[in-house]
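We examine the record.

___
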Amino acid sequence: MPSLGSIYVIAFDSGRIKVGAGADGVRRLREHRASAAGYGVEAIAEWASPPHPGFEVNEQLLIRICTALADRRIGREYFTGLDFDFVQHTAQRMSEKSANRGR
């Protein structure tokens, strides 16, 4: 049976959006919120998919899409110049398609 995990998107008041993946997307969002708060940055929007197969592949695809569309890529998973709703919707569609294929 394939491993399950989540992809997630989080937007910060600094204008950056981070995308990522992990076994527990909700926990990762909580960790990113706490880490950002230590730098005086606040999360203003966030989303995590339900666990689904293929989450690692979805993360890589989401990073490629964000890289192509962003004004700037910072590190591996942080971006500026992206619309949160667009990135979240894209990630959600990926996770739904993967979940349906896994049934």
